[in-house]
Amino acid sequence: MTIAELITSERIGLKPECSSQKRALEALAELLAGGGDGAGPGSNAIFEALSAREKLGSTGLGHGVAIPHGRLADLEAPRVAVLRLEKGVDFDAMDHEPVDILIALLVPEAATGDHLDLLAQLARGLSQPDTIGALRRAGDAAALEQELVHRFSEG
Q: Which of 63, 69, 115, 150 is catalytic?
């Protein structure tokens, strides 16, 4: 399974700004809850899972990128959501840079192997400056989706 296979246009959000890390996580939770058949966990449960992980330590990678992630028992398959902000938000990243690109990963609770593999794919892809630049330059959600699929099509 690749990140590209999990990207859907319904789970890509472009926002001018978020006022806080909490608001960014709420926006990601809403994207992760929607964009499908409507089955599965609601945005509140997803927000709690993402927030619980952040309490263990920031998922901010640096260079304006974060990968919030979590696991939920009542989720049937992994989901990915992308939020790009025009103005970054403080995410307690190691480099203290505000985060403007957030790619959230949600996996079923028992899917430990998939969780680690998908996180590794995201970390590898987002460690490339040209990938980050391309995601920032994408003019709209469709262009952002195209860049994501192109850059994450190999596992």
A: 69
Q: Is 32 helix (H, G, I), strand (E, B) or coil?
A: helix
- According to the model, what pLDDT value does residue 130 have? 93
**pLDDT band (50, 70, 90) for residue 37:** low
Burial (0-12, 13-18, 19+ Cβ within 10 Å), 114: middle
What is the C-alpha end-to-end distance of the chain, expressed in Å?
7
* Contact indicator for 80, 102 with CB cutoff of 8 Å: no
pLDDT in tens, 65-122: 999 999 999 899 999 999 999 999 999 998 999 999 999 999 999 888 888 899 999 9
Rama region for 62: left / alpha / beta (φ>0; ψ in -120 to 50; rest): left
- 40-52 burial, b at 16+ Cβ within 10 Å, e below that, comes to bbebebbbebbbe
pTM metric for this prediction: 0.92
Known catalytic residue: 69?
yes
